[in-house]
Every structure is written in C-alpha cells, then in structure tokens.
C-alpha cells in the first residue's frame, strides 16, 4: 500500500535524522574538554553539560514506554536537568548515551502503522508522528546550542564538523552524484 510505504519512509527518515543530529553533537562534544563542557559562556547560557543533561532527561521521559504512558514521566525532575551535578566527564557522557539509547530503542521498535497512533505528552494528545517531529525539533534546537557553545569554547582550535567556510565548491566537487545520482542532471529536467 502506498500509505504504508510513505509511513515507512517517514519513520526511516526520522530515525536517520536523529542519528545524524546525534553525530553532529558528538563531534562537538569530542572537541570539548571536561572543563569546557561545564563552563557557561555567559551566566544566562547553559553549559554544554547542562544541555546534555536536559536532552538526556527529555529523551528518557518521552521515549520510555512511548506508546503506553504519558511522555512526561512522574519520575522526571526537569528542573534538576538544569543543574550540573556531574562528578566527571565520563558521568556526563554516560548519561547522554543512556538518554539516546532509550530514544533509539523506542524508534527501532516502532512500526509504520504506529505513526497514526495517539499518545499524550503532559496530557496533550499527539499522534506518534507529531510527537516524533516535535522531539526532533526540540533535540535539534539543543544540539545547535551544544555545537555553538563548543565552537565558542574551542576558538581557533575548532575543527569544522560540517562543510567549512569557503569549502562548498570543493565539497560539491568531491561528493556530487555520490548520494543518489547526479544532482544537476536530476534538477535540469
């Protein structure tokens, strides 16, 4: 059925985009020392560690028992997610990975037909498709913060994690057509 194919495509796209988003954050985090993970660039801006803690807490709450319980779990302490109580870099990373593992286990268990099911987040009804796109938007926002703060802390020592400034032409020359055919040919029709 076309609808099943479309739902499968959407679900695969969401999975791939979450994985890509995490890779971007992980590349920025890898360039951050234990000290810079915990340093706020400004008193009104969260540290990378706090952003990571919030993301991990959000993922655990939203994706534990996604289809059978409200996305805001009674055991979640959201306010505490904005307080750095970590003992080490390893503890920060372990918490981060655990939150993402809950997400990926939940995503991997979903079937295309689940996208139209209804679930709740703080008592508000969402389709699974809406909850997934809402979560993807929320997490992407915070990953952007992580990358930005890491970039500020790294200064001149930052290793670009996307196409470098002034490098678009070279990137296009190296990759054109390697990802699904010749782009110019597809768009000139």
Number of helices: 7
Q: How does the overall form come out from the CA principal axes?
A: flat
* N→C terminal distance: 28 Å
The mean pLDDT is 92
Which stretches are low in confidence, meaning pLDDT under 50 for 5 or more residues running? 181-189
Q: What about the largest sheet? A: 2 strands, antiparallel
Strand order of the largest sheet: 1-2
The CATH homologous superfamily of the largest domain is named dinb family like domain
Number of domains: 2
Number of β-strand runs:
2
Rg, rounded, reads 19 Å
Order of helices and strands: HHHHEEHHH
CATH C-level class of the largest domain: Mainly Alpha
CATH topology value of the largest domain: Four Helix Bundle (Hemerythrin (Met), subunit A)
Query: Helix share of residues?
Result: 55-70%
Structure description:
With 189 residues, the protein is mainly alpha-helical. The protein has 2 domains: 2-158, Up-down Bundle (Four Helix Bundle (Hemerythrin (Met), subunit A)); 164-189, no CATH class. The protein has helices spanning 2-30, 34-38, 48-63, 89-109, 128-154, 168-175, 183-187; strands spanning 118-121, 124-127. The chain has a two-stranded antiparallel ribbon with strand order 1-2. Helix 1 (2-30) runs parallel beside helix 5 (128-154). It is flat and about 50 Å long. The two termini are 28 Å apart. Residues 181-189 have low confidence and may be disordered.
């Amino acid at each position: 059925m076309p609808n099943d194919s479309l739902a499968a495509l959407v679900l695969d796209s969401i999975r791939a985009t979450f994985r890509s988003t995490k890779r971007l954050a992980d590349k920025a985090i890898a360039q951050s020392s234990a000290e810079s993970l915990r340093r706020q660039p400004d008193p009104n801006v969260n540290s990378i560690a706090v952003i990571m803690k919030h993301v991990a807490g959000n993922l655990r709450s939203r994706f534990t028992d996604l289809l059978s319980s409200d996305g805001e779990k009674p055991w979640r302490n959201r306010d505490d997610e904005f307080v750095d109580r970590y003992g080490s870099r390893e503890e920060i990373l372990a918490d981060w990975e655990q939150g993402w593992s809950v997400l990926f286990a939940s995503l991997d268990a979903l079937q295309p037909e689940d996208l139209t099911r209804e679930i709740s987040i703080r008592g508000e009804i969402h389709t699974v498709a809406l909850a997934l796109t809402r979560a993807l938007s929320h997490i992407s926002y915070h990953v952007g913060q992580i990358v930005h703060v890491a970039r500020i802390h790294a200064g001149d020592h930052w290793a670009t994690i996307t196409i470098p400034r002034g490098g678009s032409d070279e990137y296009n020359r190296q990759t054109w057509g390697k990802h699904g055919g010749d782009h110019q040919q597809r768009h000139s029709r």
